Amino acid sequence: MADEKLHFGTCTLCEAMCGIEVKHDGKKVLSIKGDKNDPFSKGYICPKATALQDLYEDPDRLRQPVERTVDGWKEISWPEAFDKVAAGIQKLQKKYGNNSLGIYLGNPNVHNMGSMLTTKHLLTSLKSRSRFSATSIDQLPHHVVCMHLFGHMLRIPVPDVNRTQHMLIIGGNPLASNGSIMTAPNMRQKIKDIKARNGKVVVIDPRRTETAELSSEHHFIRPATDVLLLLAMLNEIYQQGFANTPSSTSTSTSTSTSNRAAALAPEIDRIATFAQDYSAESVASITGISAAEIKRLVKEYCEADSAVMYGRMGVSVQEFGLLSQYLIMVMNIVTGRLDEVGGLMFPNPAVDLVNNTGPGYLGKRFTRVSKLPDFNGDYPVAAMADEMLVAGDGQLKGFINVAGNPVLSTPNGEKLDKALEQLEFMVSVDPMINETSRHANIILPPVSPLERDHYDLTFNGFAVHNTAKYSPALFAKKANEKHDWEITLELAKRLNKNAPMATKIERWLTKVLGPKFLLGQGLKRGPYPQVNLKTLKQNPHGIDLGPLQNMLPQGLKHKDKKIHLNVDFYQADLERVKEMMQQYNDSQILLIGRRHVRSNNSWMHNSQRLVKGKSRCTLMLHPETAKQQGIENGQSVNVTSRVGNVNIEAEITDELMPGVVSIPHGWGHGRKGIEQKIAQANAGVSVNDLTDDTLIDKLCGNAAVNGVPVTLEALH
Ligand SMILES: Nc1nc2c(c(=O)[nH]1)N[C@H]1C(S)=C(S)[C@@H](COP(=O)(O)OP(=O)(O)OC[C@H]3O[C@@H](n4cnc5c(=O)[nH]c(N)nc54)[C@H](O)[C@@H]3O)O[C@H]1N2
Ligand SMILES: Nc1nc2c(c(=O)[nH]1)N[C@H]1C(S)=C(S)[C@@H](COP(=O)(O)OP(=O)(O)OC[C@H]3O[C@@H](n4cnc5c(=O)[nH]c(N)nc54)[C@H](O)[C@@H]3O)O[C@H]1N2
Ligand code: SF4
Ligand SMILES: [Mo]
C-alpha cells in the first residue's frame, strides 16, 4: 500500500532493548516486528513488543488529567490540574512540613528517557526527604555491592554471555524475564550457543524454570537459603585450591597465573577465611543440595576456560540478598572471572551515567518507624505504609506516585492500600486508573511509549554488548496530551519558583528543545566521539560499539583505583546467618514469585493479546506437597501468611521443589474502582497481599518477597 511506512525504534517494556520495526500509516500501527538490522537484538522480540500497539490504542488509557470527585472521576484541563496539584502539595507541606509528602518512583521511570533526564527537577522542587522507589524491592543489593567495591552504585559488571563457557545462574529466569542487570535479548539463543560451543549453563532455582529446562543442569534450592550455598561454595574454592589471588597463586592448583582484579583488592587475603565455618556438608540439608554436588559445582566452575556467576531477583529479594550478591561478586573475583572475557565485565555505554552522577551511599538516614536505612536518598518501600499509618512527627500525609503501582508491587499491599486511602492528598503520574492511582485526588497521565523519543539511558549500562541507538517518537502526541518530562518540568516550575538561575535555564532549555537536548550533551561527554545525535539519526537501527572491553583499573571510581572489599561490613552479617541456621525450620512451606513472558510487573494486563488463554495467576506446588495438604489440581486454595490471605487455584506440577509454592506478582485487579476492563476480567490475586513488610534484608532494607512462610488450606 502506498501510505505504508516503516519506523525503527526500541521496545521499552523490559530491560532487553529489542529493536523494533513498526509498519504504520502515519496514524495507526499496522504491525510490529523485530528489527533484523538492529546490531544489538538482531531481529529478536518477545510477545510483549506487539502490545506496544495496545498501549497506544488502549481506550482505558487516560489522555487528559482526571480529578476524583464524589460523583466519580472528572476530566479537567491541564492548567487546572497543575494548579490543583501545586496548591495541594503546598498546602500540605505548609501544614505538616516538607517531609510529610512521600514520593514513590516506579520501575517505568528508568525505561523512559524524558523521565530519566528530568525527574531530578521534580525531586528538588518537592524538597522532601521522604523518597521511595522500586529499587528496594529489586536490584538494591547490586548497587550497594558495586558502590562498596568499585566506588559507584552504577558501576555494575554483567555476564559476558556471548563469550562465556560456563554460566551459573542463581535465582534468575531470563527466558521469562528476558534478562535483568544483564541486558541481553534472546537469551534462549545465547544459552543454546553456550551449549553448542561445549560450554555449560547451570541453574539454581526452587523452580525448574523455562531457563532451567534449556540449561545443562538444574538444582532445586530451598528458598532464601542461597547465602548458605554461596558461603559453602566460597569455602570450597579455597579448600580445593582454586582461589586465584595474588598471595595464593603460588600454592594454588589453578592454571591461571594472574588475577588482575584480585591484585587490585587490598583486602583479598581476608576472603580466604571469610566462609571457613561453612562446609559443603554443613549446608547440604538446609539448602537441599548435597555436599558432593556443591563440590562438583565449584570444581566445574573453577576449571572452565571462562566462567561467570550471576544472581538475580531470586537471590536479591530475600533476607540475605545483599550478603548473597556480595558473595557472588567475591567469587567472581577470587576465581579470576571479573573483567575477563567470558566472565563478569563492565559495559561502556555511550552516555556514561557513572561519570555524571554521585556514587551512592547507604544509611545516612533511617526511616522513622522501622529504622531502615536509606540508599542514595531513597527509603525502603517496605517501610512506606508504616510511615503513612503511624502517627507522630514526620508522618506522611500526602503522596506523589510516579510510574509505580506499589499496591500490587510492594510487600503487604493491602496495608499500603489502606494507608493510601487515609492520606490527605495524593497525586499519580500514570496513564491508568489502577490499584494505586485510584486513591489519587488527581491523576496526570503521560503519553504511551510509541509517542516518545527514546534512547536507553539505563539499560545500555547493563548491556552485554556495547551499542547506541536513538529513535524519535513514532507518533506525535495530540495537542491535549503531555509527556512525563513535560509534567515533571511544569510541576517543578510551579513548586520551585526560587530555583537557582542555572536550574531555571536548564528547565527552560529542556522545555523548549526537549530532553534530546540533554541526551546530546550526555553523548558529548561520553566515551565515543563518533556517537552524537547526528550520527545516531543517520543510523536508525543503532550503532555497534563492539564487545565488552577490559575496564580495570581505570573503570574503578575509588580515588585510589582499588577494589574495596569492605570485609568488616559484610562479615558482621554472618551473625545473622548463624542465627538463621540455628533456628531453621525446614517444615515451613515457603512462597516464591514468578514471571511470565506475556506479563510485565503489574501493568500489561489490559492487553487482550497478552492475557488471553488459561489464567496464569495460579498457585504452583509439587504433587507431594499437594498430597500432604490434601489439595487437588484446579482446586481453590486459601493461602495465608502473617499479613494476609488469598484464594487461588492450585496448579500441581513437579516444576516446583517440594515444600515450595509459587504465585506470580502483579495480579489482583479485582479491587474496587479500577478502570481497566481487560485486566479486571482477568483479575487474579496479588501475591503481595501475602508478602510481609517486616520480612526484609536488614543489612540494606531490601524487601524479602522470596521465602515467605505460608500455610495452605484446600477449599471445598
Ligand atoms: N512479590 C513480588 N513483588 C515484586 C516483584 C517480585 O518479583 N515479587 N518484583 C519487583 C520489581 S523487580 C519491580 S521493578 C517492581 C515494579 O513495581 P512498580 O515499580 O511499582 O511498577 P509496576 O507495578 O509495574 O507499575 C508501573 C506503573 O507505571 C505506569 N506506567 C507505565 N509506563 C509509564 C510511563 O511511561 N510513565 C508513567 N508516568 N507511568 C507509567 C503503569 O500504568 C503502572 O501503574 O515490582 C516489585 N514487586
Ligand atoms: N516477562 C516479564 N519480563 C520482565 C518482568 C516481568 O514482570 N515480566 N519484569 C522485569 C523486571 S522489573 C525485572 S527486575 C526482571 C527480573 O528478572 P529475573 O530475576 O530473571 O526474573 P524472575 O523471573 O523473577 O527470576 C527470579 C527467579 O528466582 C527464583 N527464585 C525465587 N526464590 C528464590 C530463591 O530463594 N533462591 C533462588 N536461587 N532462586 C529463587 C524464581 O523461581 C525465578 O525463577 O525481569 C524484567 N522482565
Ligand atoms: S524482550 Fe523486552 S525489550 Fe524485547 S520485545 Fe520483549 S518486552 Fe520488549
Ligand atoms: Mo524490577
Verbal overview:
The protein has 716 residues and is an alpha/beta fold. It folds into 4 domains: 5-57 and 449-481 and 515-545, Phosphorylase Kinase, domain 1 (2-Layer Sandwich), CATH 3.30.200; 66-137 and 353-444, Rossmann fold, CATH 3.40.50; 157-345, Dimethylsulfoxide Reductase, domain 2 (3-Layer(aba) Sandwich), CATH 3.40.228; 585-714, Beta Barrel (Barwin-like endoglucanases), CATH 2.40.40.20. The protein is 31% helix and 17% strand. It is built from 26 helices and 31 strands. Strand 6, helix 3 (113-126) and strand 7 form a beta-alpha-beta unit. The longest helix has 19 residues, at 78-96. It is globular, with a radius of gyration of 25 Å. The structure holds ligand MGD (2 copies), iron/sulfur cluster and molybdenum atom (MO). Molybdenum atom (MO) binds at residues 107, 138.
How would you state the average pLDDT, rounded?
97
List the bound ligands. ligand MGD, iron/sulfur cluster, molybdenum atom
CATH top level of the largest domain is Alpha Beta
Low-confidence stretches: 250-256
Compute the separation of the termini in Å. Answer: 58 Å
Kindly report the spatial arrangement of strands forming the biggest sheet. Answer: 5-4-19-18-17-6-7-16
Assigned CATH superfamily of the largest domain = Dimethylsulfoxide Reductase, domain 2
* Overall number of structural domains: 4
Classification by helices and strands = alpha/beta
Q: What integer value in Å does the Rg equal?
A: 25 Å
Q: What fold name goes in the CATH topology slot of the largest domain?
A: Dimethylsulfoxide Reductase, domain 2
Q: How is the main sheet built? A: 8 strands, mixed
Care to count the β-strands?
31
- Helix amount, in percent? 25-40%
The fraction of residues in strands falls at 15-25%
Number of helices: 26
CATH architecture verdict of the largest domain = 3-Layer(aba) Sandwich
- What form results from the Cα inertia axes? globular
